[in-house]
Amino acid sequence: MEGSLAGGCENGLVSETTPRANNAHTAHMSVPVGEEIGVFAHYDDARKLVNRLLSGGIPAQSVAIVGGEVTLVERVVARYGYGRAALAAALTGSWIGVIAGLLFTVTTPGESLAPLAAGGLIGAGLGMMVGMVLYTTRGSDRPTFRSHQHIIASSYRIVVDSEVGGKAKRVAASEGGEA
Which helix (H) or strand (E) holds 60? Predict the structure, then answer.
């Protein structure tokens, strides 16, 4: 179940959950029914079977991966204190300063890059000061750690529409994925 997860979901994507009046869209917002082709403990194994089904001619719209017993896992990756807050604010300020220096360099004659360096250093200093004031004023609401949230399922069922169930079972049973 443990793995690297991107974008908040195990498959690296975030699904659209905004309800719409479109009936075709709301039909996809329910748990798929049909024939179960396989159950897997890991998402990658379920995805491999889906790839075989698609290669075997099963229409993509007929296949679904249904996660069971979904759990939200939040992994703490680092402490977040004054040092990290100061560094983050200084980096942000330096980018703003470099952009200001770039604008100054472009609009004034000469080939000196001194405004870029000065903008970066001044921006870092100002950014750090502003960032520390903002971090300090948050009081008990300020973050004390950084984390990543992941949605993990304990099992992944492959479900296909009943119309293609027989063909999907044959494709799943074959080694090459073609029926």
Answer: none
